[in-house]
Amino acid sequence: MSPELDPPHGPRERLLAAACEAFREEGYQVSIDRIAARAQVARQTLYNHFHSKDALFGEVVRHSIQSVLVTLDGDGDVLATLLAFGDAYRVRLLSPEGLAIFRTMVAEAPRFPELAKQFFRQGPYTTRKRLAKYLAQAMEAGELRKDDPDFAAEMLTAALIDLDRLRGLINLQTDLLKPTKTAQVVDCFLRAFAPEKDTP
């Protein structure tokens, strides 16, 4: 997940922003003291808001996906909703910050397996389940062909970022957010799941 956050105001927001930067730059082993110093708050202030570093990391992940998931709310048509979701999803995961957090999490997973599971649950898993729920509703409403919504969600999210993320992680490319990519993927997805026409 990309860790970009809204501009910090109160101590909690400053802590989240500081933790994002610290996890991205120094990995999960960064000390609580360094995070508190980045946020310009006392160590105890950090613990007043988050009882552990795991809890702070989990909140960073949860916060980072909210702007993606909110695109699935509202009454927009399927095309507009999936375009908004796709753009937000790509920005979060393919930004330099998103790639850095993903790289850090993959590297730390063998040493911190419970943290890796938490990252998966609160990031990729939550995103896909929420998207699958939206797609299931669209299928029930006849706006998409009825199929397995979990598979459809996996297919869409993979098409949106999979190869581009590898380009960023392995080739270190930075020009990943091509403006036409989301529209191409969503168009292909909607044609694949177009409602079946009634035969006369």
CATH topology descriptor: Tetracycline Repressor, domain 2
Largest sheet: none
Mean pLDDT: 87
Strand content: under 5%
Q: Which structural class is indicated by helix and strand composition?
A: mainly alpha
Shape type: elongated
Write down the domain tally.
1
SS elements, strand count: 0
The low-pLDDT segments are 1-7
The CATH class is Mainly Alpha
Nutshell version of this structure?
The protein has helices spanning 11-26, 32-39, 43-49, 53-69, 78-94, 96-108, 113-140, 149-170, 181-192. The protein has 200 residues and is mainly alpha-helical. The model is unreliable at 1-7 (pLDDT under 50).
What does this structure look like?
With 200 residues, the protein is mostly helical. It has a single domain, classed as Tetracycline Repressor, domain 2 (Orthogonal Bundle). Helices cover 70% and strands 0% of the residues. It has nine helices and no strands. Helix 5 packs across helix 6 and helix 7 packs across helix 8. The longest helix has 28 residues. The chain starts with 10 loop residues before the first helix and ends in an 8-residue tail after the last helix.
List the helices and strands and how they pair.
Layout: H1 11-26, H2 32-39, H3 43-49, H4 53-69, H5 78-94, H6 96-108, H7 113-140, H8 149-170, H9 181-192
Helix pairs in contact: 1-2, 1-4, 1-6, 4-5, 4-7, 5-6, 5-8, 5-9, 7-8, 8-9
List keywords for this structure.
single chain; 200 residues; mainly alpha; Tetracycline Repressor, domain 2; 70% helix; elongated
